[in-house]
Recover the amino acids of this structure.
C-alpha cells in the first residue's frame, strides 16, 4: 500500500473530529515574520565569504557565442571569475520536469538569454563587470520572432467528436468568433535567487522554488551529480505563479561558480532578467464556435487555439483544458496548435490553460446568450452535462449552479440592464457581466511526516513549499484537527529537501495533496492512540490533548508514555483521478465603468462565488480567491507583454512597464466560499483553489464592458486604445 | 552600477558650475545608473542646499527646486490657487516617490522610452549617432508631435504639463550667472540632438519655478493611462478655462505624453477664445490640435485618444 487513492473517502472524517480548527480563518503561523521582514528569503542568507554573481544576457536573438573578452573584465576591481559553461541553462526547467532543461550557454536561442556569469566580491562590482563584458557573437538561425510568420504544429491531441461543421450549419443560434490574448508574466515579487555552497561533494542551495523534490533532480541532472548530494533550502518563497516550478539559470550558475571558486556564490536575477528569461504565458489566438438549438442547448462546441513556444519545448499552453468538461455540445473540436518562435520560453503561469481559455470561452458564451435571447446565467445552466462529454465519466462534484445562483443574489444581478448603453454616469457607461469559473483538479504524489511529541505537541514536516499561499497554516490545521492539538502547539517545517517529499506548490494541488499526506500520517497515529486507549478508532475523539471514547478518557501524553509517535503519510493519485471529471467551479460577477471619451475601463465592484471542496482555512482560501480575481482584472485590463518583432526581445521587462493591477485598479472584492465535500478529489474532500479565481474572470469583465457600452472586445487586455477603436465618437452623441 | 565619487553640496554656489551629475530625489537617476544608461563618475548631492520652500512673490508663488512633490501638492496655496498643479503632481508616481521627487528633478526626468532604457539597442538619446530603434519598433508610448528622424521619445512627466499650462517660469543659475526662462521653452524638441532633453547648459542648476499670479477659471488635469495609477500618461491634458458673459475668456492648454516636451499649441487656444462653448467648438479645437499630429504605427491611437480627451476636458471645464 503506497497510498494510492483509488476509492473516494466518504467518511468525511474532518467533519467528525473535535478540535474545531479545520476550515477556520486562522492567521498564518509565519505571518508575523513576513510582515516584519524577518522571514529569511533565498537571497537573504549570509553564508561566510559569499561571492556575488551577476548573469550576462545575450544581445542577439539567435546564434553562437564566439568569444568572451574575459581579460578586460577579469582585471576589473573585485572580479573573481567568469563562467560560461555548457552546463549552464539556456532555458529554465518546466514544471515537474525532474531533469535538466536545455543547457549550454554557448548558443543563443532568444534575446536576453543568459550567456555568462560574472562573479565578484561585491554585487556592484559584479553588476558593472557583467555589463562591461564584451562578447563576440556569430548571429545565425532563422526561427521567426512573430508567430504570424511561423509554422504551427499540433500541441496536444485534439478532441474531435461528431461533426462540428454540420452542427454549426444547422444551429438555431451560433457564434464563430476569434479572440486574441497577449503574453503574461508571473511577476512574482521575489526575484529568482540562489546561493550555492559546497561541502565536499555536497551542494547546499538556498533558493526560491515551488517543487523541491523535482528541483533537486533538475539540479543534480544539470550538474551531473547524484540527487543525494543536493540539498535545497527554501522555507519562504515570495510568489511563484508557475515561474519557480522548475529551476532556473541562477541555481546552476551559482552552483558551478561556487564549486570552481571554493566559496559560496549568490546569484539574484535582476527584475529585468526575471522578465526576460524565466517563463511567459504564451499569447493566444482562439477561435470559438458555439452552436445551439432553439432552446439554447449547445449542439456544437469548437475551441481551437494557436500559441507559441521555443523549438523543441513540450509545453503548449493548454487553452482548451476546461472546455473539455465544462459545457455540453455533442459535436466538438478542441485543438491547441503551437508556433515555434524565438522568444523566451513559455511555460506555466498561474492557471495555465484556463486562465486564458476560460476568459475567451466565457466571452463567447455571453455573445451566444444574447443571440439566443437568454440571460447569460440561464444559458450556462442549460448546458451543464450529466457526465463529461466524450469520456462519459461523472463529475466528482460541481457547485457551478450554486455559484451562479448565490453569486447572482449577493451581487444584485437582477439590476443588470438587458441591453447595452442603458446606464450612464457622466462620462461613464456602466454595465454588469457574469462568467463561470472552472479549473481542473489534480492530486499529486505527496508525503509528509507527523510527529506527536511526548509532551503532546505536534511537528509536521515536508519539503512542501509555501509560496505565499498558506501551506504552513493549513498543514498545521489538518494535523491539529486530526490529533486534537491546539494550533498553538503545532509546529510546521517546510521547504527543505531533507524532509519527506510533498507535492510542491503548483496547479493548485499543494494543499489537497500534501494535506492528504498529513491526514494519512495522522490517521495512523490515531489508530495507535485508539489502540492504546483500548477502543476502536471509529470511536476515538481527540481534543485539546485528551483522548476519549466509549466512556474512557485519558490525556494523550499519558498514552504516549514519554515517547513520541511518528508517522510518514503518503498519497498518490489513483483510480478516482480517472473515474471522475474533477474540477473546482465558481462564478464571477462584476460591474464596470467605461469612459465614453477615453475608453478607460474601471472596475466598480466584483464578486466571486467558489466551490472547491472542503475549505481548509477560510482566510487563506479567500486570499487565494482575492489574488486570483486581481489576476483576472490584470488579464482583462492591463497585463500584456510587448515584444519587438525584429528580434523577439521583451520590451516591458519591469514592473513600471508591465502593468499588473495596482490598488486603484482593484475595487472592493467580495468572495463567497461555498460549502462542498468532494470525496473523489482527496481524503480531505478538498480540491484546489490557488488558481480558480482567475479562470474566467476576464470574461466577466469583457461581458460587463459590452453591457456598459455595447463594444464586444475580442482582444485582451482591453486597454483604452483597443476600446476607442470601437467606441462611438461621443461628440456626435453630445451634438444630437 | 559603475563606481562613482559622491559629494554633498551645502550651498547652491557649490553646485553651480560643478562638473558633476547633480542628484536630488534620485528617483529617476538612480534607476538609470543601475541600468548603466547613466554613467556619472561624480555625483553631487544637492539635497542639503535649501531651496525647498514655497515663497510668495509678485502675486505668484516661487517653488524651490528642492521642494518635494508631495509638499508642493499638499500646500494650501497651491491647492487653492493652482489646483491644476496639485492634481498633476498627484496623478504621477506613488506617494513614496512623490516624497522624494523634487520640483527641479521632476523637470529633468528622462524619457521612459524602452529602447533608451535598455543597453544593446540603438538610441540617439543615449548614444548620439547610433540610430533609433523605436521608429520602426515598438512605439506605442511614443510621440505624435515634434518628432525628428533621430528621436520619437516623449517627456514622461505630469507636473511639467501643468506648469506649461500655467505658463510658469524656470529660474536657473550657473557659473555665468542666472537666467529665467518660460517653462514652455525649458524642454527641447529632439531635432538632431536628442541627447539634450532641455536647455540647461553644463554647470547650470535649476533654483526655482515661479508660478504667475493666480488666474481663476476651472482647472482640469486629465491623465489617460493603461491602469488607474502608477502608469505614465498615454495622453494628458492640462486646462485652465474661464468663461465671461457666456464666452470663453481663457483657454490655457498643455498636453502630456505626446511630445518630447509638454506640448503647447497657441492656435488651439486662439480657436477657443471668445467663442461660446459647445460640443462643435470643442471638436473643432480638438481637430485643429491633432491636425499636426503624426503617428508612428503602434501609437496611432494617441491621435483619436488625444482628440477625445481634449473634448472631454473642455466639456468638463465649461460644464457643457
Amino acid at each position: 500500500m503506497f497510498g494510492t487513492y483509488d476509492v473516494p473517502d466518504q467518511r468525511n472524517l474532518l467533519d467528525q473530529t473535535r478540535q474545531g480548527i479545520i476550515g477556520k480563518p486562522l492567521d498564518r503561523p509565519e505571518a508575523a515574520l513576513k510582515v516584519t521582514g524577518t522571514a529569511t528569503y533565498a537571497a537573504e542568507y549570509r553564508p561566510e565569504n559569499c561571492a556575488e554573481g551577476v548573469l550576462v544576457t545575450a544581445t542577439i536573438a539567435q546564434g553562437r557565442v564566439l568569444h568572451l573578452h574575459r581579460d578586460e573584465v577579469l582585471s576589473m576591481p573585485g572580479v573573481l571569475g567568469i563562467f560560461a559553461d555548457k552546463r549552464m541553462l539556456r532555458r529554465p526547467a518546466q514544471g515537474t520536469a525532474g531533469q535538466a532543461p536545455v543547457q549550454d550557454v554557448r548558443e543563443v536561442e532568444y534575446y536576453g538569454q543568459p550567456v555568462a556569469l560574472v562573479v565578484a566580491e561585491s554585487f556592484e562590482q559584479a553588476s558593472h563587470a557583467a555589463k562591461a563584458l564584451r562578447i563576440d557573437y556569430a548571429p545565425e538561425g532563422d526561427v521567426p520572432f512573430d508567430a504570424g510568420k511561423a509554422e504551427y504544429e499540433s500541441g496536444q491531441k485534439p478532441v474531435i467528436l461528431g461533426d462540428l461543421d454540420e452542427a454549426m450549419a444547422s444551429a438555431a443560434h451560433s457564434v464563430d468568433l476569434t479572440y486574441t490574448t497577449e503574453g503574461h508574466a508571473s511577476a512574482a515579487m521575489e526575484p529568482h535567487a540562489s546561493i550555492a555552497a559546497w561541502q565536499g561533494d555536497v551542494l547546499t542551495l538556498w533558493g526560491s522554488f515551488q517543487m523541491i523534490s523535482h528541483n533537486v533532480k533538475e539540479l543534480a541532472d544539470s550538474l551531473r551529480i547524484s540527487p543525494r548530494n543536493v540539498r535545497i533550502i527554501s522555507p519562504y518563497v515570495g510568489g511563484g505563479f508557475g515561474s519557480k516550478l522548475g529551476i532556473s539559470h541562477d541555481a546552476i550558475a551559482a552552483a558551478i561558480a561556487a564549486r570552481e571558486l571554493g566559496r559560496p556564490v549568490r546569484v539574484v536575477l535582476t527584475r529585468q532578467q526575471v522578465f526576460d528569461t524565466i517563463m511567459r504565458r504564451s499569447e493566444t489566438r482562439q477561435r470559438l464556435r458555439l452552436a445551439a438549438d432553439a432552446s439554447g442547448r449547445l449542439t456544437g462546441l469548437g475551441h481551437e487555439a494557436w500559441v507559441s513556444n521555443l523549438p523543441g519545448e513540450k509545453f503548449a499552453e493548454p487553452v482548451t483544458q476546461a472546455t473539455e468538461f465544462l459545457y455540453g455540445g455533442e459535436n466538438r473540436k478542441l485543438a491547441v496548435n503551437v508556433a515555434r518562435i524565438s522568444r523566451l520560453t513559455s511555460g506555466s503561469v498561474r492557471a495555465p490553460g484556463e486562465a486564458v481559455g476560460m476568459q475567451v470561452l466565457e466571452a463567447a458564451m455571453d455573445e451566444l446568450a444574447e443571440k439566443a435571447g437568454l440571460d447569460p446565467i440561464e444559458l450556462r445552466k442549460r448546458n451543464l452535462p450529466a457526465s463529461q462529454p466524450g469520456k462519459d465519466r461523472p463529475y466528482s462534484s460541481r457547485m457551478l449552479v450554486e455559484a451562479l445562483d448565490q453569486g447572482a443574489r449577493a451581487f444584485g444581478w437582477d439590476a443588470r440592464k438587458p441591453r447595452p448603453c442603458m446606464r450612464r454616469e457622466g462620462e461613464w457607461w456602466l454595465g454588469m457581466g457574469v462568467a463561470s469559473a472552472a479549473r481542473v483538479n489534480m492530486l499529486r504524489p505527496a508525503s509528509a511526516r507527523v510527529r506527536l511529541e511526548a509532551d503532546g505537541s505536534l511537528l509536521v514536516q515536508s519539503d512542501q513549499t509555501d509560496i505565499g499561499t498558506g501551506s504552513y497554516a493549513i498543514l498545521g490545521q489538518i494535523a491539529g484537527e486530526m490529533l486534537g492539538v491546539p494550533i498553538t502547539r503545532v509546529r510546521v517545517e517546510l521547504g527543505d529537501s531533507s524532509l519527506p517529499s510533498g507535492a510542491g506548490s503548483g496547479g493548485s494541488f499543494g494543499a489537497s495533496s500534501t494535506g492528504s499526506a498529513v491526514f494519512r500520517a495522522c490517521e495512523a497515529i490515531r489508530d495507535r492512540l485508539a489502540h492504546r486507549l483500548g477502543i476502536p478508532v471509529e470511536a476515538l475523539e481527540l481534543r485539546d490533548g485528551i483522548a476519549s471514547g466509549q466512556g474512557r478518557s485519558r490525556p494523550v501524553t499519558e498514552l504516549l508514555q514519554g515517547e513520541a509517535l511518528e508517522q510518514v503519510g503518503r498519497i498518490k493519485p489513483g483510480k478516482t483521478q480517472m473515474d471522475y471529471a474533477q474540477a473546482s467551479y465558481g462564478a464571477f460577477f462584476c460591474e464596470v465603468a467605461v469612459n465614453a471619451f477615453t475608453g478607460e475601463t474601471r472596475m466598480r465592484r466584483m464578486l466571486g462565488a467558489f466551490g472547491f471542496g472542503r475549505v481548509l482555512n477560510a482566510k487563506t482560501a479567500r486570499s487565494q480567491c482575492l489574488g486570483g480575481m486581481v489576476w483576472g482584472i490584470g488579464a482583462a485590463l492591463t497585463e500584456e507583454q510587448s515584444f519587438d518583432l525584429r528580434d523577439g526581445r521583451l520590451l516591458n521587462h519591469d514592473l513600471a512597464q508591465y502593468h499588473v493591477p495596482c490598488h486603484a485598479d482593484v475595487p472592493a472584492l467580495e468572495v463567497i466560499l461555498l460549502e462542498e465535500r468532494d470525496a473523489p478529489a482527496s481524503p480531505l474532500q478538498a480540491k484546489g483553489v490557488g488558481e480558480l479565481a482567475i479562470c474566467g474572470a476576464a470574461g466577466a469583465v469583457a461581458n460587463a464592458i459590452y453591457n456598459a457600452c455595447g463594444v464586444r472586445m475580442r482582444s485582451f487586455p482591453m486597454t483604452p486604445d483597443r476600446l476607442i477603436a470601437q467606441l462611438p465618437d461621443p461628440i456626435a452623441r453630445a451634438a444630437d | 552600477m559603475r563606481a562613482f565619487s559622491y559629494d554633498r553640496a551645502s550651498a547652491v554656489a557649490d553646485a553651480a558650475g560643478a562638473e558633476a551629475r547633480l542628484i536630488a530625489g534620485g528617483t529617476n537617476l538612480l534607476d538609470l545608473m543601475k541600468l548603466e544608461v547613466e554613467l556619472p563618475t561624480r555625483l553631487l548631492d544637492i539635497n542639503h542646499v535649501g531651496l525647498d520652500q514655497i515663497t510668495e512673490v509678485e502675486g505668484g508663488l516661487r517653488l524651490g527646486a528642492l521642494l518635494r512633490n508631495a509638499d508642493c501638492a499638499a500646500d494650501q496655496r497651491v491647492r487653492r490657487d493652482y489646483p491644476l498643479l496639485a492634481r498633476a503632481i498627484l496623478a504621477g508616481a506613488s506617494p513614496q516617490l512623490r516624497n522624494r521627487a523634487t520640483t527641479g528633478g521632476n523637470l529633468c526626468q528622462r524619457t521612459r522610452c524602452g529602447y533608451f532604457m535598455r543597453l544593446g539597442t540603438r538610441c540617439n538619446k543615449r548614444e548620439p549617432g547610433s540610430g533609433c530603434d523605436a521608429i520602426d519598433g515598438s512605439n506605442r508610448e511614443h510621440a505624435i508631435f515634434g518628432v525628428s528622424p533621430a528621436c520619437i521619445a516623449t517627456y514622461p512627466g505630469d507636473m511639467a504639463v501643468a506648469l506649461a499650462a500655467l505658463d510658469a517660469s524656470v529660474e536657473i543659475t550657473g557659473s555665468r550667472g542666472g537666467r529665467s526662462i518660460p517653462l514652455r521653452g525649458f524642454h527641447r524638441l529632439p531635432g538632431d540632438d536628442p541627447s539634450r532633453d532641455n536647455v540647461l547648459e553644463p554647470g547650470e542648476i535649476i533654483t526655482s519655478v515661479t508660478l504667475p499670479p493666480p488666474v481663476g477659471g476651472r482647472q482640469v488635469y486629465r491623465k489617460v493611462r493603461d491602469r488607474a495609477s502608477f502608469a505614465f500618461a498615454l495622453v494628458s491634458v492640462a486646462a485652465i478655462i474661464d468663461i465671461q458673459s457666456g464666452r470663453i475668456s481663457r483657454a490655457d492648454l498643455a498636453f502630456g505624453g505626446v511630445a518630447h516636451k509638454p506640448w503647447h499649441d497657441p492656435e488651439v487656444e486662439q480657436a477657443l477664445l471668445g467663442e461660446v462653448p459647445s460640443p462643435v467648438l470643442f471638436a473643432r479645437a480638438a481637430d485643429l490640435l491633432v491636425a499636426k499630429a503624426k503617428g508612428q504605427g503602434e501609437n496611432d491611437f494617441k491621435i483619436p485618444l488625444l482628440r477625445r480627451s481634449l473634448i472631454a476636458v473642455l466639456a468638463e471645464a465649461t460644464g457643457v
Observations:
- Chain A touches chain B through 39 residues (CB under 8 Å).
- The mean pLDDT of chain A is 97.
- Residues 510-533 of chain A form the longest helix (24 residues).
- Chain A has three domains: 4-38+444-573, 42-142+189-280, 353-442+579-735.
